[in-house]
Amino acid sequence: MAGKHYPINKGINKSIVFKGLKAQYIGYMGLGLLIDLLFYAVLYMLKVNTYVTLLLTLALGAVIAVAVYHLNAQYGEHGLIKAMAKRKTPKIIRSFSRRIFK
Q1: What is the pLDDT of residues 17-51, one digit of tens each?
Q2: Which residues are CB-contacts of 55 (< 8 A; sequence separation ≥ 6)?
Q3: Chain centroid to CA 13: how far?
Q4: Which positions ≥6 away from 17 have C-beta within 8 Å?
Q5: pTM for the full model?
Q6: How confident is the model at residue 15 (pLDDT cuts 50, 70, 90)?
Q7: Measured in whole angstroms, how far is the alpha carbon of residue 89 from the centre of its chain?
Q8: Which helix (H) or strand (E) holds 21?
């Protein structure tokens, strides 16, 4: 009996691609689905109605999947990291003293 086989396409010096997700987005998807599982467990322990719990969990999972695939399509392999780094760079550097240049 053989289980399902999910191919992970990886060439030399290329990033991992799985079901259309590239590089770090695979990890983001895994983390998002883990959070979704914990959300389900919390709702289950709070004795929320089973159908409401399933509906909310499926909705959250769909939102996570759509968001991760959107980020993957918009920014690509390294673009999200570059965009986050660009946001942290200052727009203007002011110096009121020449002491730092001496």
Answers
A1: 777 777 788 889 999 999 999 999 999 999 999 99
A2: none
A3: 22
A4: 8, 9, 10
A5: 0.68
A6: confident
A7: 22
A8: strand 21-22
Domain extents in the chain = 17-82
> If you compute the radius of gyration of the chain from its CA atoms, what whole number of angstroms results?
21
pLDDT value at 1 more than 60: no
Nearest to 53 by CA among 68, 69, 75, 36: 36
Tokens found for residue 96: 């009121």
Q: Token pair of 29, please?
A: 């998807």
The answer to whether 21 and 69 have CB atoms below 8 angstroms apart is yes
Q: Are 71 and 80 in contact (CB under 8 A)?
A: yes
- Looking at residue 11, its amino acid is G
